């Protein structure tokens, strides 16, 4: 595809050639001049695998550094995929928030910025803002589709799911739904991050890319079952998009459900400082107004626990992982049937 390059100037550069056929493994280099390195770079890993003709698909992992299944599966693809197996081009980025990935943290320890609230970025901003700006200005215009592989991270444990990114454009919305369904996770969930425009997937949609995400477990660990879902799902979507041949397709599951988060009512937030006791397991069907959990103040036994309640009917979809909570922490997430 030939689309106009961005007019925003940038000092970031690639060590791989996006137009070369075959497989290249290299880096997006962000000039970075901290105390101990005057003329160094932050190296964000990028692999390009290209062959024949077909769509360009960007796979992102490590947008948050404590979400592991997507990055593992993308690295496996980089090592295992032979260019002759594909038609089109894959731009594989397993560790985009690279300082956070190496630290096992959600946000970058270098600039404190949340990568997924840093789109469309700033080519003259912090390392994180420069990285997201390069993706928006130089990579999205090269691409037809974008897969953003998240998990719940250290603070949330989420039922493994494919995520539909809503779009104002009805054609793109339908394409996004089909891509997420092709991933074929046990659950498919519409999540718009309360309309936040600063996410990677919202920015990809604005660029006109077929866009989907995932939430694959969480809790700051690697889930064996979620990793299997990731490996299988990525290949399913690449078959759906025409990059991998249909011979590599696997039999779809028959029990796929489509859910959505009911806006702000999806969330149960902590109301006081304490230890959160959830009352239900993942997948439990809940009702609005029903007790959802208790927050205990174990250092003040004279105080009874504070009860918190569900704000929506639906299914318990995500739960906070650490027991310790402060007011405003997200304790529980409820999803309900879509449509
Ligand atoms: Ca995430």
Topology:
Layout: E1 13-14, E2 22-32, E3 40-51, E4 56-60, H1 69-80, E5 88-93, H2 98-103, H3 127-139, E6 145-150, E7 156-164, H4 170-183, E8 187-190, H5 200-206, E9 210-218, H6 224-240, E10 257-260, E11 267-269, E12 274-278, E13 285-286, E14 291-296, E15 306-309, E16 314-320, E17 324-325, E18 330-337
Helix pairs in contact: 1-6, 4-6
This protein binds calcium ion (CA).
Calcium ion is lined by residues 64, 67, 150, 153.
Task: Describe it.
This protein is of the alpha+beta class and 339 residues long. It folds into two domains: 13-260, Zn peptidases (Aminopeptidase); 263-337, RNA polymerase II/Efflux pump adaptor protein, barrel-sandwich hybrid domain (OB fold (Dihydrolipoamide Acetyltransferase, E2P)), CATH 2.40.50. 20% of the residues lie in helices and 31% in strands. It contains six helices and 18 strands. It has helices at residues 69-80, 98-103, 127-139, 170-183, 200-206, 224-240, and strands at 13-14, 22-32, 40-51, 56-60, 88-93, 145-150, 156-164, 187-190, 210-218, 257-260, 267-269, 274-278, 285-286, 291-296, 306-309, 314-320, 324-325, 330-337. Strands 7-8-10-18-16 form a five-stranded mixed beta barrel. Strands 15-14-12-17 form a four-stranded antiparallel sheet, with no helix packed on it. Helix 4 (170-183) crosses helix 6. The protein binds calcium ion. Calcium ion is lined by residues 64, 67, 150, 153.
């Amino acid at each position: 595809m030939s689309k106009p390059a961005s007019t925003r100037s940038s000092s970031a550069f690639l060590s791989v050639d996006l137009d070369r056929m075959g497989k290249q493994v290299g880096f997006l280099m962000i000039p970075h001049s901290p105390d101990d390195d005057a003329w160094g770079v932050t190296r964000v890993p990028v692999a390009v695998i290209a062959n024949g003709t077909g769509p360009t698909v960007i796979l992102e992992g490590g947008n948050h550094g404590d979400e592991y299944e997507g990055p593992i599966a993308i690295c496996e693809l980089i090592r295992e995929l032979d260019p002759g197996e594909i038609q089109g081009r894959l731009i594989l980025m397993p560790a985009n928030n690279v300082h956070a990935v190496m630290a096992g943290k959600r946000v970058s320890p270098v600039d404190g910025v949340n990568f997924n609230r840093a789109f469309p970025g700033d080519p003259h901003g912090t390392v994180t803002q420069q990285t997201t700006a390069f993706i928006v200005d130089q990579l999205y215009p090269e691409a037809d589709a974008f897969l953003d592989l998240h998990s719940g991270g250290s603070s949330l444990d989420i039922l493994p799911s494919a995520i539909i990114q809503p779009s104002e454009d009805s054609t793109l919305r339908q394409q996004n739904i089909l891509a997420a369904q092709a991933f074929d996770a046990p659950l498919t969930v519409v999540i718009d991050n309360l309309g936040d425009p600063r996410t990677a997937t919202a920015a990809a949609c604005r660029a006109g890319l077929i866009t989907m995400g995932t939430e694959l477990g969480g809790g700051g660990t690697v889930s064996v079952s979620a990793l299997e879902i990731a490996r299988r799902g990525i290949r399913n979507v690449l078959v759906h998009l025409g990059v991998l041949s249909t011979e590599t397709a696997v039999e779809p599951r028959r029990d796929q459900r489509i859910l959505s988060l009911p806006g702000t009512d999806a969330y149960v937030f902590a109301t006081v400082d304490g230890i959160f006791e959830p009352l239900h397991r993942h997948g439990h069907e809940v009702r609005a107004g029903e007790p959802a959990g208790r927050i205990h103040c174990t250092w003040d036994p004279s105080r009874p626990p504070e009860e918190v309640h569900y704000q929506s009917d639906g299914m318990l979809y995500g739960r906070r992982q650490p027991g310790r909570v402060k007011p405003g922490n997200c304790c529980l997430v409820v999803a309900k049937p879509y449509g």
